[in-house]
Structure formats: structure tokens, C-alpha cells
Amino acid sequence: MKRKHLLWLLALLVPSVAVGWPWSRDMMNSPSIKPQEGEMTPFAKQSVPVGGNPTVVTDRLAAFRLANPVAATPESIARGRQYYTIFCVPCHGVSGAGNGPVAKKLPVPPMNLTNDFIQKDTFESWVFAMISFGGRVMPAYANDLSVEERWDVVNYVRQALVKDASDLSAAAAAAATAEKDAKK
Fold this sequence. Notes:
The chain has helices at residues 2-19, 60-64, 74-92, 116-121, 124-133, 147-159, 161-183. The protein is mainly α.
């Protein structure tokens, strides 16, 4: 009987003692190189330096205090239109009304970007913060768009989206009228 208890005690004790030996800490004590540690390797000869307007913001509140460093030039608005088409149209739609193809599948509808709240009542930095850090169901695009690209989207949303939306609805109305006349 005592021998049976001794075997059980050894069976429980041996694995717990083995875990405490030095070989169980090999991965924990292995050498590693941390980011930004050591000397930086030189850039490749064909690499291209990236410019832009660096903005260091870590949270939404810091973003609210920013001023738009990118002037709303036609070039900036055109770039913003491109980025809007790629990243925003699936949810907000071409017109910005929150009626994109993905909008029907979301638990919360996307915001209408043509309403007065977005166009007149909010600061540009609020729109920038939403693009950077996301919203209720909106993903954050800080990793996908550079700072300058995000400000280009802000310039497009605030300066040209409403006009583009009205042009789009006028074109759709004209097409519907032409289709109706063609059926007659």
C-alpha cells in the first residue's frame, strides 16, 4: 500500500520538479533584438524616401486639436476622391449618404457624410480622427492611409462630396427620364 502511494507521489512530483530546472527557461532567456535596438542597416540603393506631413497622434482627443496641414487644392481633392472611392464607398456609398453595398450588412448604418453635421457643424479634425481611429463599426484607416492621404480624404468630404453627390443624383434623374422617354 505504501509503495503505491510512493509511486503516485513520484508521478506528481517529478514533472513539477522538472519544470523548475534551467532547461525549461531556454526560450525565455534567449537572445533577442528589440525594435529600434542596435545599428540600423543602410537603405537599399533603389529605395525611395517617403515624404509627407508627419502627425503624431496617439488618441482621438489629440486628433481633435489638429489643424488641417493640407490645403484643399484641386489636386488634394482629386487624390481624396480616389482614396474615398477605394476605402469609403463600400459603406458610405458614392453619394456619401451611407448607402454603400456593405451598409445593408452592418448592425449600425454608416453616417451620412452629406448632412449638415459633417459638412458644417464638425471640425475637419473630427473627420480626420474618425478616419484615423474608426468609429462604432467603422474600421481605423491610420495603417492604410498616410497622414497626408487622410487629410486629402477630409478635403474631399468637406469640399467636393456634396457637389459630386448632387451631380450624381442629377445624372441618375436624367438617365431615368431618358429611359422613361425611350419606353414611350
